[in-house]
């Protein structure tokens, strides 16, 4: 990607994918509910979902994010929670849950196409998502949006180091970049930490791992919107701040 430093204000806009552009967590929630029903046939536990998340959180370092990590965590949790009493047929049911997750349709959220097109008409846009490489690539293809993005990046983690590396490759300074996403932890906080900008588009359900985030300053460089249809207006407001910080009373340093 050519260097974008020459553009005043916000020079590049990044989009998250799952639960920002299309439905995802709903399918994971349904798979977890079915997993809990399977386990209920062996033990009477009220916190099976919490126990599963403990396995998932520990296994991120081994399996990464996405369906395959969840599937392996479900198998491990099922064996240990039931003291190895779980039947092979129920292990197969758990594996089938994972296969169904990998086959679920890509359903764009309301207003997404129009919003991304409107932003892409004004700014270069890139897609930055995390998860299983093959699954994410397939969803991007099926979404019908791939032609709108200059770059599509599937990363193993979304933290300040990853964003800094990508921005270096894009030729964009932190203060010239804005990220759009549903996760404060993965999409907004790391970018604010680099002096960038963010538009938070909350989704109605969020995985426990993404539900909390510590924003260490920079809140004036973000907006929260109710729907993605409000994104173009929020982006214009933040771009104005980026171009004329003193006029708009924006006093925070930008990296």
Note down, in words, how this protein is organized:
This protein is an alpha/beta fold and 255 residues long. The protein folds into two domains: 12-22 and 106-243, 3-Layer(aba) Sandwich (Rossmann fold), CATH 3.40.50; 25-103, Putative phosphatase, domain 2 (DNA polymerase, domain 1, Orthogonal Bundle), CATH 1.10.150.240. It is built from nine helices and six strands. It has helices spanning 25-40, 48-63, 67-81, 88-103, 112-120, 133-143, 160-170, 184-193, 231-243, and strands at residues 12-15, 125-130, 151-155, 177-181, 197-200, 222-224. Strands 3-2-1-4-5-6 form a six-stranded parallel sheet, sandwiched between helices. The radius of gyration is 20 Å and the shape is elongated. The two termini are 21 Å apart. Residues 251-255 have low confidence and may be disordered.
